[in-house]
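Memo to structure team: turn this sequence into structure tokens by end of day. - J.P.
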Amino acid sequence: MLETRFPRVHGDVGNALTFPFPVQYRVVCGASPDKVVREDPRKLAEQFIEAGRDLIGLGCDGISTTCGFLTPLQRELANALSVPVATSSLMQIPMLQKMLPNGKRVGVITISRDSLSKAHLLAAGIVNPDTVPVVGTEQGREFSAAILEDRLTLDFDACRLDLLDAANELVTLHPDVGCIVLECTNMAPYAADIRKVTGLPTYSIYSFLCWFQMGLLPERFDNEADAHRR
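Reply from structure team:
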């Protein structure tokens, strides 16, 4: 986890009640939202590796992060840790693009359009970042400022409107968008509203980690259990 104070509402990746499976957290001291989003997160690589190793020592069998801007650390963390690592919801984009028909693209909503670089997208496995339309929430009422400034309070309704505004901007500017990926791990609580307003499939860190965890602990079905008993 980044070192933060802002409220972790239900649906946020930093709220353990968000997930239908058990999670553990470790805070990376000094990894503030502003430093990770607006500066070079690779300077914090060793701290993230140390936190990952600590979690693995406690029995964790998969590692994620609480910021979509950590894709520059994906290979370094994956190489350094002994379990699968998923740093960012942006890693869903190559797979989703293959699911769309010709003429449709994956669009992205991010907490900071100016900070989301081609390097971030390349590190997520996107071969041609120029083909991915991106809009940000930084001109909104509440969301970007509350998270990046690490405020003690969060106006959920104002954040919701910021996300809906960004979604409407994305589909208006880019009518060829066929689905949406939410870069920021704090955006998952608003995915259902974005889906309803735009009519487009909307993916977040929540969708990514639910898929991720299903490989770590596959569902055991009744007929399989019966076969083992026989």
